[in-house]
Amino acid sequence: MEKACGLHCTKINNIGVKIGNEVILKDVSIHIHCGELTVIIGRNGAGKSTLLKAILGEVPHTGDITFVDKKDNITRKIKIGYVPQSINVERHMPTTVHDLFASAISHIPVFLRKDKKIYAEIKEHLKIFGAEELIDKSIGDLSGGELQRVLIAIATKPTPNLLILDEPVSGIDRNGIQDFYQIINKLKSEYDMSIIMVSHDLDLANKYADKVILLDKEVIKEGKPEDVFRSLEFRNRFGELN
């Protein structure tokens, strides 16, 4: 994975979503800078999942998303890596980590033959996330933390302009959470990646986020974690953060 470079950012501009006459999102604008973790928080029904779907192009919306590179060039064809909250995995399913990864990056059906070059490429990329030893393991036999490492590895090849994480630590134990944030810090510092994450865990957002967005159909408050969590807007929706 090549290191991205320079002062670039992803700009989410005036995103709006309506279903019938109901406003789900209203003029949401967020700048997600390189080398930063931006965490979106909000109560149930605030529009967090809808915002992710809009960014991914899965729901009709107004507004647009642009990527500004280090030379101030603007493009609307951005590469987005996405790690969902969960995937449906049956225990002991025969699909291996290699099979899942190869199907995402190769045009050759994995059931036809195992390409040695692609196998080596996948193993090398998994190594970034401390997951190279999982390459031949069945997906159904992975722990929650192992599966997240694999999914993040897949989402970052090729290197995206924006990495989207949807409740990525749900169902992961404390050690797994620590490993997860070490990976995020590595992506931020070594690959200068723009990362946006939806989370219900306010304590984790407070501890690890560079910027927090409080969403309630629109952006209610944004800034450093301490500024958002001490704000009147936050207290009106969540009370005091312990």
Protein model, in words:
The protein is of the alpha/beta class. It has helices spanning 48-55, 97-105, 116-128, 144-155, 174-191, 202-208, 225-229, 232-238, and strands at 9-19, 22-33, 36-41, 62-68, 74-75, 80-83, 162-166, 194-198, 211-215, 219-223. The strands form two sheets. It has a six-stranded mixed β-sheet with strand order 6-7-8-3-9-10, sandwiched between helices. α4 (144-155) runs parallel beside α5 (174-191). The N and C termini lie far apart (39 Å).
Give the averaged pLDDT, no decimals. Answer: 87
Helix % is: 25-40%
Straight-line distance between termini: 39 Å
Low-confidence stretches: none
Largest sheet: 6 strands, mixed
Number of helices: 8
Indicate the multimeric state.
single chain
Radius of gyration based on Cα positions: 19 Å
Blueprint (SSEs and pairs):
Layout: E1 9-19, E2 22-33, E3 36-41, H1 48-55, E4 62-68, E5 74-75, E6 80-83, H2 97-105, H3 116-128, H4 144-155, E7 162-166, H5 174-191, E8 194-198, H6 202-208, E9 211-215, E10 219-223, H7 225-229, H8 232-238
Parallel strand pairs: 3-8, 3-9, 6-7, 7-8
Antiparallel strand pairs: 1-2, 1-4, 4-5, 9-10
Helix pairs in contact: 4-5
